[in-house]
Design brief:
Blueprint (H helix, E strand, L loop, with lengths): L1 H8 L13 H37 L6 H34 L6 H28 L10 H10 L2 H27 L1
The structure holds protoporphyrin IX containing FE.
Length: 183
């Protein structure tokens, strides 16, 4: 096999030379991690841009027609839908890869469980916000107080705050793996 010759040629002595059969799988995992990070950046970064830049600009002196805000919201919702799909699939692959390695212990599992719970809440909230905007949810609900609490819990700002926390938890996960590698 040509790959074997290439691998041994780079390693004088040849003893440690191991045909890296994992290389294609590693490449796939890098691709999955990249897609995962890209989707997270697009969603959370887009939300930060919306709240800190676009919204104040649209509400400021240069009043844009409402159709502009609606078009922006519509496009962003499509982006969020795509991000949710990518995050779900790639996140499941990354979790399976980590949980089947010897590098993770109980702390990793606990942080991952918290992260997945918050991520699922984000996915559900994105759906709920869309349904609310299209008038599908809230029908028949009589109690205003409860609706207020539900609205606060599922607001776009809350999604943004939780998204930022989820990214922090992802960094903690990586830290726990790196600590496992070095110790
Ligand atoms: C079901 C949902 C999800 C699962 C199962 C999941 C799982 C994972 C796993 C296992 C990792 C690797 C952590 C490590 O280094 O050991 C990871 C990384 C990461 N996740 Fe998630 N995740 C999910 C959703 C999300 C969401 C909603 C966000 C943000 C909006 C997010 C942002 C990130 C980021 C930024 C990284 C670091 C990527 C990198 O270092 O290249 N994840 N995720």
């Amino acid at each position: 096999m040509p790959t074997v010759r290439l691998a041994t040629a780079r390693q004088p002595g040849g003893g440690a030379a191991r045909l890296d059969l994992m290389a294609p799988l590693d490449g796939l995992l890098i691709l999955v991690r990249w897609l995962h990070a890209l989707a997270a950046v697009a969603w959370v970064g887009g939300a930060i841009f919306y709240w800190l830049v676009l919204r104040p600009a649209l509400r400021g002196g240069n009043q844009a027609p409402p159709t502009v805000a609606q078009a922006v919201a519509r496009e962003f919702r499509s982006l969020v839908d795509a991000c949710i799909g990518v995050l779900l699939v790639s996140g499941t692959i990354l979790a399976a890869s980590r949980l089947t390695s010897a590098l993770v212990g109980v702390p990793y599992f606990a942080v991952l469980a918290l992260k997945v719970t918050l991520a699922l809440w984000m996915f559900w909230t994105a759906r709920a916000l869309r349904a609310r905007r299209t008038g599908l949810s809230g029908q028949g609900s009589a109690r205003r107080g409860l609706r207020y609490v539900a609205a606060a819990l599922t607001s776009a700002q809350a999604t943004l705050v939780v998204g930022v926390i989820v990214i922090l938890l992802s960094d903690i996960l990586r830290f726990l793996v790196e600590r496992g590698l070095s110790g």
